[in-house]
Amino acid sequence: MAFCKQKVALLLLCLSVLYNICIGGRSFVEFEGGKTEDKEGRYDENAGYFCSWSRKYHGTRARINVWGIQNVSPSSESAVFIAVMNENGPGHMMLAGFHVYPRLYSGNTDLRLFTAWTDRTTGHNGKACYSPDCKGFVLSHEHGAPVPGGTVEPLSTFDGEDHFITLSIKKDEKTQDWSLYRHDGNAVLIGWWPKSLFNNTFDMATRVIWQGGVLYPKNETSPPMGSSHAACEGEHKAAYISHIKVFDQYGKTMEPYKVQGVADKKDCFTIDEFKYSREHRNHFYYGGPAGCIN
Ligand SMILES: *[C@@H]1O[C@H](CO)[C@@H](O)[C@H](O)[C@H]1NC(C)=O
Ligand SMILES: *[C@@H]1O[C@H](CO)[C@@H](O)[C@H](O)[C@H]1NC(C)=O
């Protein structure tokens, strides 16, 4: 496990001085501590950022750095995803990203593309209903479109190669359905969530989300998140989400404004500052090693 002392110290200072609210540069950081559990009583821990300032989003796009994730037990999951959520009414959510979740794939621990959707009444934290087992997400069958459940290659290596996949979830202004695209070159439509899934109540996202997340049973320790290295290790070591954009209520791309941080268990799963650089645009690093105990 690696500690990056300076940043941890800074973070603690920030936290103690500003009561869980830390305003630095362009970002507004708020930590939502605490344990959450899914329906099976597994721990659910997330680290990342979200934006809910305008409460009128038509989606988001981000570049997701991909890593192979070791040590994920059959009933655990380690994921990274982007999501859109509507907090009016039942709290619907659509997610897309990459995960290792052996239980869904006959015990296999490859990194795979996944999509999911929920209303809060059917599953906890949007993770109950996964493609390809879950009905609802419609495949485009477009030539060259990746398919949810498919494995991801090549992967990044520590201090070595950097690989990523850019995804967007965007409301289709004509059909009003919510589409999932892969970018990186020509955009290819992976599929969509029909608006009827949500009884037409999902007209806007009130929140857009970029996160790493783990699920693990109480009798086990946590799987790793991201590259299994702490956020403050940075480039080529920690996992990142970069080139983060939001779509406004007219479907135009915008820079995210007033983002807020989430670190459910920050002694295990860290995020660094949400920041802008020419190379990575809006981005942050996140993650942590396996073996966290609750
Ligand atoms: C949509 O409405 C039907 C009928 O009222 C209901 O059974 C279903 O649970 C609703 N679905 C969602 C996602 O809210
Ligand atoms: C922990 O509990 C789950 C059921 O919740 C079970 O499937 C798993 O085998 C248990 N793990 C260990 C290490 O005993």
From TrEMBL:
InterPro entries: Glutamic_endopeptidase, Neprosin. This is NEP-interacting protein (DUF239). It holds the Pfam family Neprosin. Keywords: Signal. Transmembrane segments: none annotated. It comes from the Eukaryota. Residues 1-24 form the signal peptide. Residues 37-293 form the Neprosin PEP catalytic domain.
